[in-house]
Write a structure and sequence with these properties.
Layout (H helix, E strand, L loop, with lengths): L4 H5 L19 E4 L9 H16 L3 E4 L13 H12 L5 E2 L15 H14 L2 E4 L3 H13 L15 H9 L5 E4 L6 E6 L3 E6 L6 E4 L7 H11 L4 E5 L6 H10 L7 E5 L2 E2 L15 H6 L4 H10 L13 H7 L10 E2 L2 H14 L2 H14 L7 H12 L8 H9 L7 H7 L2 H16 L5 H14 L4 H13 L7 H8 L1 H13 L3
Parallel strand pairs: 1-2, 2-3, 9-10, 11-12
Antiparallel strand pairs: 4-5, 5-8, 6-7
Helix pairs in contact: 2-11, 7-8, 10-12, 13-14, 17-18, 17-19, 17-21, 18-20, 19-21
The protein binds one RNA strand through helix 5, strand 7, strand 8, helix 7 and strand 12.
Length: about 500
RNA sequence: GCCCCCAUCGUCUAGUGGCCUAGGACACCACCCUUUCAAGGUGGCGACGCGGAUUCGAACUCCGCUGGGGGCACCA
């Protein structure tokens, strides 16, 4: 690209670039445009969800675009991590990154030639101009302005440079940026689907950089350019971008789209401390929730509820439900605090709803990772009904089924001291004998036998059964006892009961 | 400092002038069920930030205040 003198000579107004005129098509097109600077953040994920849902609800298209113009902050593999997160949540995109489509490429650093052509045209048209101010100069003037109580924005220093001034700067070896020229007077109106009509006084808006000295555009330009180029009809994004929207409105206009897309600025998600979610304080990445044992169904449901509601009582939604019911009109305007408790409750709900085989399949990786590489899905599926209503997250499953997987269980010492009294051990000894006779080895038969013995001895159920539970599972808290014994099998159950019976009190 | 947004139980929210002595969910507490832990059931605790104005009547409208959040980069 060329900068400098060429801008000054092209004083005539260019014909509006026909490519940038793109009527709002009837089909809704939304996009999710993350920066590959890390993992998929829960706040970002919610933005993606709402954007996706809005497109689906209206039979439109959902586009995935990578905004990697801050090359300093790009993190290797993070685009893939974001994609993985979206796929895990079940948010499929119709075109874009990794999928291609009519507006390729969908990675901004691969679109530099387009941005250059467009910024050149903007300069020629008078909507933008090269600026040679150095960072140090800007900083100095900003401070001076602030000292006088003036806004810290750009002061328009390079707005009307003479040819001589430009030559002088060029001779110094300065590399210019390109700034977008904003009106000094009047007001800019932003129409927002969630916030309504907001007016900004143009006097508070200052010229901003759209092309860096290194030839890479800034977000405020590339995002707008691509939204025009990709025929995006609805921009759904976080509220943090709301104050930048008047700038964008002007760039849309300059790019030949006098009516910008519809905007929907979502309220921010804040932490339990009501402050912006922070990588340091909060668990933020969708992947982290995945490895902590949350189900995508729960995550989607929770995120949907975090700033949106259907009515005064419906709380459970599948992604498919949401694709039918979601609406931006019902998005809340106040920032929502991320509350893990509610997520936990939803996760427990969805965990309990899973078919045993499905539950087993989802829990298996967690069981394997917890030190039971030999665990079989079949056994897990059998144990599922006992475990499902007792866990909140998948990571808790191994702890619950460990006694079925370990050849030997280690008895909780404190529990043993409490429960393996003389009375308890006597019960265990007799129980072992009777258990040998139980036929068939089913929970019902085991229960009948043990309950018979307990009543015979005049013991309270607790006094009788807690020692058995400890013997069989190693703990005083476990899945239902008789069902567990059935699953464990006669041989292992008996061995454990006998062993505990013989232990010294 | 300047600009913008927001304001109902601890949290997510319903509520768009009378249906509200403000509804639901999560959390919490109690009870029931029960061999443990859960799950489930029943009940309870718990909110319209403050001050004006409009109105016969304000959670709902308007103004001010207070409080919270966001933004003012060659980050997005």
């Amino acid at each position: 690209m060329e900068l400098g003198g060429s801008y000054l000579t092209a004083k005539h107004r260019l014909q509006t670039n026909s490519r940038s005129i793109r009527r709002m098509s009837e089909t809704v097109r939304t996009r999710f445009a993350p920066s590959p600077t890390g993992f998929l953040h829960v706040g970002t994920a919610r933005t993606a969800l709402y954007s996706y849902l809005f497109a689906r609800r209206h039979g439109g298209q959902f586009v995935l675009r990578m905004e990697d113009t801050d090359t300093e902050r790009n993190v290797a593999d993070s685009a893939q991590a974001i994609v993985d997160g979206l796929r895990w949540l079940g948010l499929d995109w119709d075109e874009g990154y990794l999928k291609g489509g009519p507006h390729e490429p969908y990675v901004q650093t691969q679109r530099l030639d387009r941005y250059h052509a467009a910024t050149n045209a903007l300069v020629a048209h008078g909507d933008a101009y090269p600026c040679y101010c150095t960072q140090a100069e800007l900083e100095q003037r900003r401070k001076a302005a602030e000292a006088c109580g003036l806004p810290p924005g750009y002061d328009g220093h390079c707005r009307a440079l003479t040819v001589e001034q430009v030559r002088a700067y060029e001779a110094e070896g300065r590399k210019p940026v390109v700034r977008f020229r904003l009106p000094d007077e009047g007001e800019t109106v932003v129409e927002d689907l969630i916030r309504g009509t907001v007016r900004f006084d143009n006097a508070t808006l200052t010229d901003f950089v759209i092309l860096r000295a290194n030839g890479i555009p800034t977000y405020h330009f590339s995002a707008v350019f691509d939204d025009v180029d990709m025929a995006i009809t609805h921009v759904v994004r976080g509220e943090d971008l709301f104050p930048s929207t008047p700038r964008h409105v002007h760039v849309f206009r300059a790019l030949g789209r006098p009516t910008p897309p519809a905007f929907a600025h979502l309220p921010l998600i804040v932490g339990a401390d009501r402050r912006k979610l922070s990588k340091r304080r909060d668990r933020l990445s969708v992947q982290q929730f995945q490895t902590d044992g949350y189900l995508p169904e729960a995550m989607v449901n929770y995120l949907a509820l975090l700033g949106w509601s259907l009515d005064d009582h419906t709380e459970l939604f599948t992604l498919t439900d949401l694709e039918r019911l979601f609406s931006l009109e019902r998005v809340s305007r106040n920032p929502a605090a991320f509350d893990t408790k509610k997520l936990d409750a939803l996760n427990g709900h969805y965990l309990r709803q899973l078919q045993p085989a499905d539950f087993a399949a989802r829990a298996l990786p967690f069981v394997h990772a917890a030190g039971f590489p030999g665990a079989e899905p079949g056994l897990l599926a059998e144990a599922a009904p006992l475990v499902q209503e007792r866990v909140t997250r998948l990571v808790e499953v191994p702890g619950m089924v460990g006694f079925l997987l370990d050849d030997e269980v280690e008895l909780d010492q404190a529990a043993a001291a409490k429960v393996l009294t003389d009375e308890g051990r006597a019960f265990l000894a007799e129980a072992a004998k009777r258990l040998e006779e139980v036929e068939p080895w089913t929970a019902a038969a085991i229960e009948a036998t043990l309950r018979g013995l307990q009543e015979e001895r005049g013991l309270k159920p607790k006094t009788a059964f807690q020692p058995v539970r400890l013997a069989v599972t190693g703990r005083l808290v476990s899945p239902p006892l008789f069902e567990s014994m059935e699953l464990l099998g006669r041989a292992r159950s008996l061995a454990r009961v006998e062993r505990a019976a013989g232990l010294p009190g």
